[in-house]
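INFO batch 0412 | record 1 of 1 | parsing
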Amino acid sequence: MSPLRKVLAGLGAMASIVFLGLLIVPGSPAYLEVQSRIALAIWIIMGIIFI
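INFO prediction complete | emitting tokens
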């Protein structure tokens, strides 16, 4: 894997973590309520199962 691809993969991972943080941090404009968190958890579990 080329160094450029590694850097791009790292940037993508950091962006994902930032957006996930926006969904989880209370007081954030994008904060998820309980029902949305349950749906997110199910979505993540399904993604892990079907990889």
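INFO post-check: The CA atoms of residues 43 and 49 lie 10 Å apart.
INFO record closed
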